[in-house]
């Protein structure tokens, strides 16, 4: 049977107990000295008292450590808790009589006092110190149990956090695995439509698809990649789409220098741009111009994918497999710390003027990441 691990008497706990015990004993010794001073007792008696306290300190600390080790054995054997409580009560009482025995022995052997060491003398002195020894014993036991509880809770929280991270990692990998077949299916459909029209273009598209798949396979299980690597994937994808649509589809990238080393999820742009093609063309929209714009604002990367295709108000919702997959991955990676918006916007700048379909993404600007 597997037993639960306990943190009884590790190094840090021992230091805590030692400091607590030392402080308690210094306070008790100081109080005793003040009482003796009021009686104008000689320095010789105070010296004997100091020696006694040092011996008591070592003896009691050894006793409590022994009691804790015994308690650990009971826990490992699965002893019922009420029995352990009874054992602690007995050990706390025994500590007082053990201390009385040590004290009498020291007075007789070291200080040659005319005292008889009997069961009755041990009993009487033990009763006198019972309250202090009970308090000392159970306060130290309480420290041990509290320390053990918080250490186990910390370990449980760490295990839960690790498990959660592993589950998220598994989910992200599964989503990326879904994305590749989805993209491959759409790409093969595009290539098949080229075969009858232009075999040379179809052959080039197959070569580009092979290159893109090789690059995506090289990502392995990367959850985040450099922006420059993602843009390289995007260039290959855009090259494939240009083979099919020629001048009917155009991609413009506006990305300031210095952003290439930031990290983003792999295959992030491809589904967003694929959306401009799948849903942008119509009888009134025979040419699609797509703009990918990225900028850094404070601690976030702001990403926009703008296209002049069919407006959203004339379409059904566009959250299909591709974008849905992107959102699920972002949820798993950033735990809600991102923004997504897909809407019609009125734009007037050097690239567009009018109403356009815009995807807006706001992601944490990350530069260091360990897979």
Automatic annotation (TrEMBL):
Coiled coil: none annotated. Keywords: Membrane, Transmembrane, Transmembrane helix. Signal peptide: none annotated. InterPro entries: Bact_2-comp_sensor_kinase (IPR050640), HATPase_C_sf (IPR036890), Sig_transdc_His_kin_internal (IPR010559). The chain crosses the membrane at residues 12-37, 49-70, 82-106, 126-147. One of its GO terms (cellular component) is membrane. Residues 171-248 form the Signal transduction histidine kinase internal region domain. One of its GO terms (molecular function) is phosphorelay sensor kinase activity. PANTHER family: SENSOR HISTIDINE KINASE YPDA. This is Signal transduction histidine kinase internal region domain-containing protein. It comes from Flagellimonas meridianipacifica.
């Amino acid at each position: 049977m597997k037993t639960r691990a306990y943190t009884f008497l590790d190094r840090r706990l021992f230091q805590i107990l030692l400091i607590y015990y030392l402080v308690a004993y210094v306070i008790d010794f100081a109080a005793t000295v003040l009482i003796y001073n009021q009686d104008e007792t000689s320095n010789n008696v105070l010296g004997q008292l100091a020696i006694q306290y040092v011996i008591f300190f070592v003896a009691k600390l050894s006793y409590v450590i022994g009691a804790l080790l015994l308690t650990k054995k009971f826990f490992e054997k699965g002893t019922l808790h009420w029995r352990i409580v009874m054992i602690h009560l007995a050990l706390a009482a025994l500590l007082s009589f053990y201390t009385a025995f040590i004290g009498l022995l020291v007075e007789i052997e070291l200080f040659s006092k005319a005292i008889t060491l009997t069961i009755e003398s041990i009993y009487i002195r033990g009763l006198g110190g019972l309250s202090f020894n009970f308090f000392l014993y159970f306060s130290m036991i309480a420290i041990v149990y509290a320390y053990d509880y918080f250490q186990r809770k910390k370990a449980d929280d760490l295990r839960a956090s690790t498990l959660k991270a592993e589950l998220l990692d598994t989910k992200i990998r599964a989503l990326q695995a879904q994305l590749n077949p989805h993209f491959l299916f759409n790409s093969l459909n595009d290539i098949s439509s080229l075969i009858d029209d232009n075999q040379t273009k179809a052959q080039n598209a197959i070569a580009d698809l092979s290159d893109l798949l090789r690059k995506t396979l090289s990502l392995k299980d990367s959850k985040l990649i450099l922006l420059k690597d993602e843009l390289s994937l995007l260039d290959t994808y855009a090259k494939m789409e240009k083979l099919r649509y020629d001048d009917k589809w155009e991609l413009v990238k506006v990305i300031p220098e210095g952003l290439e080393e930031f990290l983003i999820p792999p295959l992030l742009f491809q589904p967003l741009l694929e959306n401009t093609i799948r849903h942008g063309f119509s009888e009134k929209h025979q040419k699609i111009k797509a703009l990918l714009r990225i900028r850094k604002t404070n601690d976030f990367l702001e990403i926009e994918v703008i296209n002049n295709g069919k407006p959203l108000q004339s379409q059904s919702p566009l959250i299909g497999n591709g974008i849905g997959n992107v959102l699920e991955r972002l949820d798993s990676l950033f735990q809600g710390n991102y923004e997504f918006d897909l809407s019609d916007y009125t734009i007037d700048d050097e690239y567009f003027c009018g109403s356009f379909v815009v995807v807006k993404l706001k992601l944490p600007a990350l530069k260091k990441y360990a897979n």
